[in-house]
Amino acid sequence: MKKRKLKRNVIIVACVLIVLIAFAIGYIVFSDLKQEDVLREEIAILDKKDITKDRYNTPIKTHGDYAKVEKAIKSYLDDYAVTLQAIMKLIDDDKLANMLTADNYQTDGPDFVNSKKYLTETKTSLNEKLTKLTNMTSTEAIMQEFNKEGLDEYYNDLYRELIVNDILEKDLTSAKTTLDEASQQINNLISTEEEIINLLVQNKGKWKIENNRIVFLETSALSQYNELAKKIAN
Questions:
Q1: Neighbouring residues of 226: CB distance < 8 A, sequence distance ≥ 6
Q2: Within a 13 Å sphere around the CA of 125, how many CA atoms are in the beta-carbon half?
Q3: Among 11, 137, 220, 233, which one has the highest count of C-beta atoms within 10 angstroms of its own C-beta?
């Protein structure tokens, strides 16, 4: 009788354990699926942002390994956005636009020490940031940084799907194309402005400012100036 009762108790305990294990597994699976849903919802919100104006360093909403995926995506996008916005700020700088004005000629000429320094630093900073963005848009660079987390292949695939397939192909590639065109134009502009400033330095004493306009005292310098000015106009 005791043996039969013991056997029954063992069976009951075993059944309870099976139920608990099944419940635990079910809870883990449910929680895992829920975390992925939260992550995808968060990425959908990020996708609505304007990378030329917004930041992506928002609070992390997921947990565990999903949080590592979310953090990596947000960190990458925020770094890209900050760099892109810095480039746009350089391009839209009023100082660059006003470099070839009578006011600047009068203020900084005839040696243009500040202008030459500004143009050199702007060009260097611009191209460093452009190189950084170009490197960032390669799939290898994106995955290489995330692979350092050492997560399972599932999370690597999820990260690749969300940032490379969903974001990079749509938004960043388009932004890069536009940026490449704009950067070529701005580099040409800076180079031509440098040529004009150097021309004025080399010919100081052969030009002056009258009625808020530059007036050349020698036709050869005027001819060179006009040719460079045409390049900017075009």
A1: none
A2: 15
A3: 137
DSSP 54: -
pLDDT tens for each residue of 132-164: 888 887 778 888 878 888 888 899 989 988 887
Distance CA 10, CA 5 (A): 9
Percent of the chain with pLDDT over 70: 80
pLDDT over 90 (residue 171): no
Is the CB of residue 62 less than 8 Å from the CB of residue 70?
yes
String of b and e for 212-231 (b: at least 16 CB within 10 Å)? eebebeeeebbebbeebeee
Q: What is the pTM of this model?
A: 0.77
> Strand ranges (DSSP E) for the chain?
207-210, 213-216
Q: Kindly give, in sequence order, each residue whose CB lies less than 8 Å from that of residue 104, ignoring residues fewer than 6 positions away.
A: 98, 115
Helix (H, G, I), strand (E, B) or coil at 127: helix
- Does position 85 have pLDDT exceeding 80, yes or no? yes
Confidence class for position 16, pLDDT limits 50, 70, 90: very low
Q: What is the mean pLDDT of the chain?
A: 82
In the block, which residue shows the tokens 């690597």?
156
Q: Is the Cβ–Cβ distance between 105 and 213 less than 8 Å?
A: no
Contact present, 193 and 232 (Cβ < 8 Å): yes
Q: Could you tell me if 139 and 164 are in contact, meaning their C-beta atoms sit under 8 angstroms apart?
A: yes
Burial class (CB in 10 A: 0-12, 13-18, 19+), 207: buried
- Structure tokens belonging to residue 25: 């597994």
Is the distance from CB of 232 to CB of 100 less than 8 angstroms? yes
